[in-house]
Write a structure and sequence with these properties.
heterodimer, A: 243 residues, mainly alpha, 14 helices, globular, B: 307 residues, alpha/beta, Rossmann fold, Alpha-Beta Plaits, six-stranded mixed beta sheet, 11 helices, 14 strands, 35% helix, 27% strand, elongated
Chain lengths: 243, 307
């Protein structure tokens, strides 16, 4: 655990050592607010809630989270620092978790900086803050899921652009798993498998949390998905780290 | 103690390391030589636990690199090829990061950081990000992270690559200082380095060990072992001198370099030719600028073995 913390702190500091972190946070905040006010019609709806804000998060994350995740391992391999890191007395798991948690925490910081919009609705009306809290939690879990997928894609290649594109495409498939666009691709599968694929959709799990219903099954879904892709990251690295 | 037994690494279409077995004990500084792509780095990476062997075993201080990787890594200081690091970090925070991963705490952490920073003369660049450093400084930062936990075993992949002669000298001095109590393996292309720091040499070619000897023993395999080299004051005497030396029964061959006015006489196997040559020089009235006995040329042995 100590090693996970050491790696996480180093990673997080390195985000803020370059303009990357500030650019990301700025873009995230501008887009989140622009989408909420111009397309979500926060004022026009006349309701004191943040649904128009959270509804856009899956689409915002679809591009921004793979952008954070793409450098996780691809860059380490490109610069060779992966050899330095993995020859320290740490396990591969500790390295994968440390880097993953750093990226997640970074997105959490960006998400937390959207607090003015929460203050705004509380000033204008009397929203259900429990629902808003649940939606923030759901948004964070969603980002965690995207990030785990991105981490795995980044472990597969030393090219960050390839990692980004693979990440966006895979996240997109998971996002829309329950929708005809994706299900039609798998139309030849038996109905039971189709239902299984449909149940993997990020969107359905996220939307139920965002409505304020914290169902243990939805949380478990995200936890298992994250666990699965981090395991896949570890395996991919173990096989390909020195290539 | 470093021990490898029948260590091999095969990739789909390539055998990178083929049945390599050796042991290195305390006080030994082993020079790993070989052409590019011979398997030096792959062998070192397997010892460092970065590449998994296809077959065979390797252990560091009695800890198998595959079954007890953490203990093996804890005994080891490793400088990867090219001295990679985190470019956006400052030198100080990078070294602190490594010190933390190496479980250094409190007084000892501070003492070790001070030691490596002083020893590798990093004081002036502590606050600079590693990206902005010269190649020589980056290599020194890599060396600093390798020795920070005072490991009993050091594996350094091309530690002096890209350094200027003064920096090379510094690094060699450091290696020589540590050699007494540590086991050290270095890989290098620079043959003079072998003479400067190693007391044992393994030459690898096409993944196999082709020579395992002391630098002196290896040099003795050279055609130039016990050869005598003379430089004449007057290049006009070159031809006559050559003929006279070639006529000596114990001389196998004479090489002439007209540019330097130098003659190199190679002995027949086992023969000693220095006395005969100096006598001949006196008899013929050759004016010598220089006369010396060669111990053998490593580069020539290297080429003969690995070509």
């Amino acid at each position: 655990m100590r090693n996970v913390g050491i790696i996480m702190r180093r990673e997080l500091r390195s985000y803020f050592a370059t303009p990357l972190a500030y650019v990301f946070i700025l873009i995230f905040l501008v887009l989140a607010n622009a989408l909420t006010f111009f397309f979500g019609g926060l004022y026009e709806r006349g309701q004191a809630d943040l649904l128009p804000f959270f509804n856009f998060h899956p689409w915002l994350y679809l591009f921004l989270v793979p952008a954070v995740a793409m450098r996780l391992w691809a860059e380490e391999r490109k610069t060779g620092s992966i050899e330095l890191l993995l020859t320290q007395p740490i396990t591969l798991w500790q390295a994968v978790l440390g880097k993953y948690f750093a990226a997640w925490l970074f997105i959490a910081i960006a998400l937390a900086l959207t607090f003015p919009i929460w203050i705004t609705v509380n000033y204008l009306g009397d929203p259900d803050n429990g629902v808003i809290f649940a939606a923030y939690l759901g948004s964070l879990m969603l980002a965690g899921g995207f990030l785990a997928i991105g981490s795995c894609m980044s472990a597969l290649t030393r090219n960050q652009v390839v990692a980004f594109i693979l990440g966006v495409v895979t996240c997109f498939v998971f996002l829309l798993a329950g929708f005809p666009l994706v299900l039609n691709l798998f139309g030849w599968l038996p109905q039971a498998l189709l239902d299984a694929i449909a149940s993997l959709s990020f969107l359905t799990h996220f939307e139920s949390i965002a409505k304020g219903v914290i169902d243990i099954r939805d949380l478990l879904y995200f936890a298992m998905l994250i666990g699965f892709f981090l395991l896949a990251t570890t395996i991919a690295l173990d096989v390909r780290k020195a290539d | 103690m470093i021990r490898t037994e029948h260590l091999s690494k095969r990739y789909a279409s390539l055998v990178a390391v083929d049945d390599v077995s050796f042991q290195v004990g305390p006080g030994e500084v082993l020079g790993f030589l070989g052409p590019n792509g011979a398997g030096k780095s792959t062998t070192m990476r397997m010892l460092a636990g970065f590449v998994t062997p296809t077959s065979g075993k390797a252990s560091i201080c009695g800890h198998d690199v595959e079954t007890e990787p953490l203990r093996a890594k804890a005994c080891l200081g490793y400088l990867p090829e090219g001295a990679p690091s985190y470019g956006e970090m400052s030198v100080l925070s990078f070294l602190e990061f490594i010190a933390d991963l190496r479980q250094l705490t409190g007084e000892r952490r501070k003492a070790r950081l001070d030691y490596v920073i002083g020893r590798l003369q990093l004081e002036k660049v502590l606050g600079q990000s590693i990206d902005t450093l010269s190649k020589g400084f980056r290599r020194r930062v890599g060396l600093a992270q390798a020795v920070i936990h005072d490991p009993p075993v050091l594996i350094l992949d091309e530690p002096t690559d890209g350094l200027d002669p003064n920096q090379k000298h510094e690094v060699r001095t450091l290696i020589n200082e540590m050699a007494r109590e540590k086991i050290i393996i270095i890989s290098t292309h620079i043959l003079e380095e072998v003479d400067a720091v190693c007391n044992r040499v393994i030459i690898i070619a096409r993944g196999r060990i082709v020579a395992d000897d002391t630098p002196q023993g290896l040099a003795a395999k050279s055609r130039y072992h016990n050869a005598v080299s003379l430089r004449l004051d007057d290049a006009g005497q070159l031809q006559a001198a050559r003929d006279a030396i070639a006529a000596l029964p114990s001389v196998a061959e004479v090489e002439v370099s007209e540019r330097e006015a130098r003659l190199t006489a190679l002995p027949r196997s086992g023969a000693t030719i220095l006395p005969a040559l100096s006598e001949l020089a006196a008899r013929q009235g050759l004016k010598l600028k220089e006369l010396h006995l060669e111990s053998g040329r490593l580069d020539e042995v290297f080429r003969a073995i690995t070509a």
